[in-house]
Write a structure and sequence with these properties.
- The protein is an alpha/beta fold.
- Helices cover about 55% and strands about 10% of the residues.
- Strands 2-1-3-4-5 form a 5-stranded parallel β-sheet.
- The longest helix has 30 residues.
Length: about 210
């Protein structure tokens, strides 16, 4: 018996900033194989720069994307960071504009995230075999910006609200806060290999539900 793992999301899912095989997805797959004592086949559908809106559209309109999520025993989801980054970049140096742009981005992000989780639930509805969904929380890529800290915390509270018997939330905020130099790539936005190991370990620590 083997399991199938589908990873969806942004550049964290692709492993940007780490050497091949050192992103959280392949590391988590290896950890899962160790815990489940069987092979875990991987479909990585990560897209660099993907926003919640982009992921929502793929889940609703891309047949192969939908099929890969529906048939997966394990699904991981990393999304939301680009919504914050785009809003922060759009604001530039305008401090007054930053707050309003971030507020708008957070509203849209929460709504899209709800739609994403709803679509995943629809795809999984009626399936007899057990499965797990794992959400990767956000760290703050802009620790020097107070509004960004509040944004990330608000998003994480929202995403953690979807926790259930099958859905787990991997909180990584505290691990990265104050440790950005050691856990982020030279672009200061993406994790490095060590950062991705932290994420994979957090996911592994959530256990595997009724699998195995």
């Amino acid at each position: 018996m083997s399991y199938h793992y589908t990873a969806i999301g942004d550049s964290l899912t692709t492993g940007f900033g780490a050497l091949p095989g050192n992103g959280f997805v392949p590391v988590y797959r290896r950890l899962a194989e160790g815990r489940l004592h069987t092979s875990v086949n991987l479909t990585n559908l990560g897209v660099n720069g993907l926003t919640t809106d982009g992921l929502e559209q793929r889940l609703k309109n891309d047949y192969n994307y939908r099929l890969a999520v529906r048939d997966a025993d394990i699904v991981t989801l990393s999304i939301g960071g680009n919504d914050l980054i785009k809003a922060a970049k759009a604001a530039g140096n305008g401090a007054g504009e930053l707050s309003s742009l971030l507020e708008k981005a957070l509203r849209n992000c929460k709504r899209n995230f709800g739609d994403i989780m709803g679509t995943v639930a629809q795809l999984k509805a009626g399936l007899r075999k057990p499965y797990i969904i794992r959400i990767v929380g956000l760290y703050n890529p802009y620790p020097q910006i107070a509004e960004a800290t509040q944004w990330v915390k608000a998003f994480n509270r929202h995403a953690a609200g979807y926790s259930s018997m099958v859905c787990g939330f991997a909180s990584i905020y505290q691990e990265f806060a104050g440790n950005e130099r050691g856990l982020l790539f030279i672009d200061h936005l993406h994790p490095n290999g060590r950062g991705y190991q932290v994420i994979a370990a957090k996911l592994n620590g959530l256990g595997y539900g009724h699998l195995g």
